[in-house]
Amino acid sequence: MKLSKIFRDGIINDNPIFVQLIGMCSTLAVSTNVVNSVAMGAAVIAVLVGSNLVISILRNVIPDKIRIPAFVVVIATFVTIVEMFMKAYAPPIYEALGIFLPLIVVNCIILARAEAFASKNGIVASIVDGIGMGIGYTIALVVLGAIREIFGAGTFLGMQVLPASYQPAGIFIMPPGAFILLGILIGVFNLARRKKSSSKA
Amino acid sequence: MSIPAILISTIFVNNYVLARFLGICPFLGVSNKMETSAGMGVAVTFVVTLSSIITYFIQKGILDLLGLQYLQTIVFILVIAALVQFVELVLKKISPSLYNALGVYLPLITTNCVVLGVAILNIQEGYDLVRTIFNSLGSSIGFTLALILMAGIREKLEIADIPEVLKGFPIALITAGLMSIAFLGFGGLV
């Protein structure tokens, strides 16, 4: 498989949020604004690339029967590293992400990539796959975060973008807004993919 | 917080699924049928409560004593994974009928963020043992409640006329959003 295809698959054809529909918890929870979305995306990319790399290196050493616990330990190690790093260098973001930072351990995206890709493929391909999937996740998160921030608070990256007379629709920031918006976005993504495939055929 | 307040808060006001976004994967994944939802709910309640008690003792007895708090994530997830395996083995030996009913859900629970989330939140909130137990019970009952309500709605949705692109996951998410609005109504209770 070509590396560029692996990379593109992660972002578009197999986008973890819009197509594979995994890793929903953190997506819904941290996407209240763009800054949090980017920070969470970066954390997931770091963990995903690290765990894919290590698991790919160890793929012939890890016995098949205990592979899941072994994967989980590798992932948990990288999550702890990212957690400590954020706590030291970006305490406000660490506070904002809260419980969802340690919960990257149980984010299905990372275990799914370890099981489905890194344990079967070479080191370079696994790293590319990690970056692609991570960016795909980040894009979904940022789109959701941007819409929620603009309509829910009238700002983008903390700057006022809508006129001050705009009454922010708080529902976008609250949990119901996250559910409904993500549902609609997946619907739109499905529509776009269908248009594309029907125009090809 | 008093114990009744913890229960009401975790079941209704701060429902883990609808207000805190924990356990969305099983919430959307297994909420197709009423029976499977109830089975998943019971299995989660059992594992969450047991794992919270065990992680409480590990945190107080080992990690805090030795100053190893930074190992929390790794230790907790290993304990949960081992516990789930252990529960599976014990159930198989002691009660084959219960095992048959819950067996398929047990492996899924390891990666359910409710389990790890509740264990970590109990420590963060500084709950004592009794509050830990009731917080775990309440949150898993809240999870079960959301799961069963969702299953009830989705059984009806199957025969509804929905635009093709929204079928399945998208409409389930929108439904969850509407349920979440309804749960906002509990806001003033605690």
Summarize the structure in short:
Chain A is mainly α. Helices cover 70% and strands 2% of the residues of chain A.
Strands ordered across the widest β-sheet of chain A: 1-2
Order of helices and strands of chain A: HHHHHHHEEH
Question: How many helices of chain A does DSSP assign?
Answer: 8
Rg of chain A from C-alpha positions? 18 Å
Mean pLDDT of chain A: 88
DSSP, total strands of chain B: 0
Q: Give the amount of beta strand of chain A, in percent.
A: under 5%
Q: How would you sum up the global shape of chain B?
A: globular
Cα end-to-end separation of chain A: 24 Å
Whole-number mean pLDDT of chain B: 86
What pattern of helices and strands is seen along the backbone of chain B?
Answer: HHHHHHHHH
**Uncertain runs of chain B:** none
Structural class of chain B: mainly alpha
Strand content of chain B: under 5%
Largest sheet of chain B: none
Question: Distance N terminus to C terminus of chain B?
Answer: 10 Å
Largest interface comes to:
A-B, 42 and 42 residues
Q: Tell me the quaternary state.
A: heterodimer
- Sum up the overall morphology of chain A in one term: globular
Number of helix segments of chain B? 9
Specify the helix fraction band of chain B: over 70%
Protein described:
- The radius of gyration of chain A is 18 Å and the shape is globular.
- The mean pLDDT of chain A is 88.
- Chain A contains eight helices and two strands; from the N terminus they run H-H-H-H-H-H-H-E-E-H.
- Chain A has one domain (3-200).
- In chain A, strands 1-2 form a two-stranded antiparallel sheet.
- Chain A is an all-alpha fold.
- In chain A, strand 1 and strand 2 form a beta hairpin.
- By secondary structure, chain B is an all-alpha fold.
- Chain B contains nine helices and no strands.
- Chain B has helices at 3-13, 24-29, 34-66, 72-94, 96-102, 106-109, 113-124, 129-157, 169-184.
- The radius of gyration of chain B is 17 Å and the shape is globular.
- The chains are: A mainly alpha (201), B mainly alpha (190).
